[in-house]
Amino acid sequence: MTAPPATMDGPERTDCGGATSGDGQHQDPDAGTEPDARFTLANERTFLAWNRTALALVVAGLGIIQLLPPFPGVRYGRHLLGIPLIILGAAVSVTSYWEWRRTQAALRRREPLPRSVLPVVLATSITGIGALSAVVVLISAVR
Asked: Following DSSP, what letter does each residue of 81-108 receive, concatenated?
């Protein structure tokens, strides 16, 4: 016995309780048909994974500021490294919610899934923070 294919076809529930404009278009981004629960749950798991990443960034930033010994010769070195991580963690958390909402709305409307900006933002930011870390360490080693 094989499992049914993972498509959004199947029993559909119409969940169009949102307000409509004069041309019959739904104004509520969540209006549309209820997607397969597997897709909704996968979207939620992705949201939760991004929030675990955000929490790890915030904790890393706090740990750097509070627990790392001061860098010799760099007065605010810990803050230069920790604060961007905390801000990045907060930004990832907020953005992951927006991404979850956009994806859920696309699933309900049976549209292609929107591309996420989070991988680019995270990779770029961590690269910048890594370069800043190298500079701080090199300055403290020279002094």
From this structure: HHHHHHHHHHHHHHHHHHHHHHHHHHHH
**Stated pTM of the model:** 0.74
Length in residues, the chain: 143
pLDDT tens digits along 10-45:
444 444 444 444 455 544 656 788 888 999 999 999
- Could you tell me if residue 7 is inside a domain? no
Q: Which domain holds residue 80?
A: 34-142
Domain presence at residue 50 = yes
118 sits in the region (left: phi over 0; alpha: psi -120 to 50; else beta) called alpha
The total of structural domains in the chain comes to 1
Q: Distance between CA 121 and CA 88 in Å, rounded?
A: 9
Please count the other Cβ atoms lying within 10 Å of the Cβ belonging to residue 18.
12
